[in-house]
Amino acid sequence: MERIASAQLPTAEATFTMTVFRAEDGKEHMVLSLGDLKAEPPPLVRIHSECLTGDALGSMRCDCGPQLQEAMHRIAAEGRGAILYLRQEGRGIGLGNKIRAYALQDQGVDTVDANHQLGFPDDARDYRLAVALLCEMGVCRLRLLTNNPRKVASLAADGIEVVDRVPLQVGENPHNAGYLATKRKRLGHLLPP
Ligand SMILES: Nc1nc2c(ncn2[C@@H]2O[C@H](COP(=O)(O)OP(=O)(O)OP(=O)(O)O)[C@@H](O)[C@H]2O)c(=O)[nH]1
Fold this sequence. Notes:
Strand 6 (141-145), helix 7 and strand 7 (161-166) form a beta-alpha-beta unit. The protein is 37% helix and 24% strand. The chain has helices at 52-56, 64-78, 89-92, 95-106, 111-117, 128-136, 149-157, 177-186; strands at residues 2-10, 15-22, 28-34, 44-49, 81-86, 141-145, 161-166. It has a single domain (2-88, 125-186), classed as Rossmann fold. The chain is an alpha/beta fold. Guanosine-5'-triphosphate binds next to helix 2, helix 3, helix 4 and helix 5. It is an enzyme of class 3 (hydrolase). Belongs to the GTP cyclohydrolase II family. The active site is at 123 (proton acceptor), 125 (nucleophile). GTP binds at residues 46-50, 67, 89-91, 111, 146, 151.
């Protein structure tokens, strides 16, 4: 993981430091950070997977956009923390394939079966990327903003101590109710029924 550049990024929530890293496959990933990440208590961290449709366009098919906004808001409120923005669009299958999966979901297939019909696993992400970024920043203990127990387990398996899982339940709407229900029932996300 190569550190490329860092600069200040003023936003409505806070002025974050944005740092770009390049992985061995050439993909660029981003960390938005605030305050001293090595101080106690362990910082609030969000590991966010790229979602062009939700993060940039405000799509209501998923909860990604509101989760990103809420993570920025909570980190700003604490005055320290980080968002790792991983370029693993579409749970790792890429934008074109995610839209193929959306087209299948438009015909009634759920998000997991749509991935399978396209020949992908339900979740193709690799959190070793996140571990490499955390190690680069010297963060070995954190409080993780997520509803996804798989994320917590992946980090723990690679030696990152998740001292607390902080739920991030925002952005439910009539368009994504079925999608969220599938995340809960088939992907193990800790979401209210
Ligand atoms: N393949 C696929 N990817 C999707 C779909 N909807 C959203 N995504 C992607 O899912 C990723 C976000 O993952 P989620 O499963 O929503 O949440 P998570 O990161 O596992 O868990 P949280 O930390 O609780 O948010 C982003 O990369 C989105 O682009 C879909 O229907 N199909």
